[in-house]
Design a protein that fits this description.
By secondary structure, the protein is α/β, with parallel strands linked by helices. The chain is 42% helix and 15% strand. The radius of gyration is 20 Å and the shape is globular.
Length: 341
């Protein structure tokens, strides 16, 4: 949908825009004049929002959000929630929506922006912008390297304009949590749904073949492994890409579950480390492959996007320590904001 149409609707209503990274609203020129939020996964916690007034109206456009914290917050509120979907599908994970509006979102947003004149509630908006500012300050203060920083660097350093395809599991969640809204031109795509990490490489290269701007694929090691044969499309479709491969040797997302405290069976049955060396894909698919430390990623990525050809930049990380950093940032945000209330 058209970001400018949604921005016009936001201006007319005074509503802040809570923008999933796949929404098409997290990035772009409209963020100069529209309140676009991206740090909500950390601060939409009951400890923070317990004293917030519930919104009276929520207008939801598109699929169910990536953020579990956002979904749970919406489910807790007593708001009238309008779910706008052009196909009339009830794409709602928490059953919190009250009304389904079958309409083309851009057309609806433009029309409503012409009909509605609402005086913004400055105190309501301040709750969100103050929480947002506090969260990004804490992200900036974090000095330890972790996987979320790689996602943030990709969103920050990608050329303008860029197509950014992001894998399921941790990459899309890290983009959600750590890629702050900006005026930069980014088309962010992903495959959300039951297919999980299957077909990510093929989908990304297919998207790249239909675009004229630079393509970056941000993926994890298991998604890369599951669809390595998709790299054949590089030659068949004539696609150049930068593939950022975050390799933590297994299913790092499972550190988010209580099962991580039980060993066995956690490592063998959930994390499932593979020990594969992906450097062999360089010769097999006629691409450039480099393995770098997280501290060297920004330089390697900047060099890749400035040159022709396809580069795979493998960033070796530790899944457990990355999760501890994510938790630490979120806990600090919730502690600071609950105290300020």
């Amino acid at each position: 949908f058209n970001a400018e149409a949604v921005a016009a609707f936001a201006h007319a209503t005074g509503f802040p825009v809570v923008a999933d990274p796949l929404s098409g609203l997290r990035f772009g020129g409209h963020t100069r004049t529209t309140t676009v939020l991206g740090g909500y996964d950390a601060y939409l916690d009951e400890r923070v929002t317990a004293d917030w007034a519930d919104p009276e109206v929520v207008v939801r456009i598109g699929a169910s959000p990536t953020s579990k914290a956002l979904r749970k917050y919406l489910a807790r509120t007593d708001a009238r929630q309008y779910l706008v979907d052009p196909t009339g599908r009830w794409r709602e994970a928490e059953f919190g929506a009250t009304d389904l509006v079958e309409a083309e979102p851009s057309v609806l947003a433009w029309r409503l922006s012409q009909l509605i004149r609402n005086r913004p509630d400055e105190s309501w908006n301040a709750l969100w912008t103050d929480a947002e500012d506090a969260y990004w300050d804490l992200v900036d203060d974090e000095t330890d390297t972790f996987e979320g920083r790689v996602a943030a660097d990709v969103a920050d350093l990608a050329p303008e304009p860029s197509t950014l395809f992001v894998s399921n599991s941790m990459p899309v969640r890290d983009l959600d949590r750590f890629a702050r809204p900006s005026t930069k031109s980014r088309t962010v795509l992903g495959n959300r749904g039951a297919s999980g990490i299957d077909g990510i490489v093929s989908s990304a290269l297919g998207a790249g073949s239909a675009a004229t701007d630079h393509l970056t694929l941000l993926t994890g090691d298991l998604a890369y492994y599951h669809d390595m044969n998709g790299l054949l499309a590089l030659g068949r479709l004539g696609v150049d890409a930068t593939i950022v491969l975050v390799n933590n040797d297994g299913g790092g997302i499972f550190h988010m579950l209580p099962i991580e405290e039980y060993e066995p069976p956690f490592t063998d049955q959930f994390k499932t480390p593979h020990g594969l060396d992906f450097a062999a894909t360089e010769d097999l698919y006629d691409l450039s492959f480099a393995s770098v430390d997280p501290d060297d990623f920004r330089d390697a990525y900047a060099e890749s996007v400035a040159t022709d050809g396809t580069d795979v930049i493998e960033v070796r990380t530790d899944a457990e320590s990355s999760h501890r950093v994510r938790e630490r940032i979120a806990d600090r945000a919730r502690e600071r904001l609950s105290e300020s209330d």
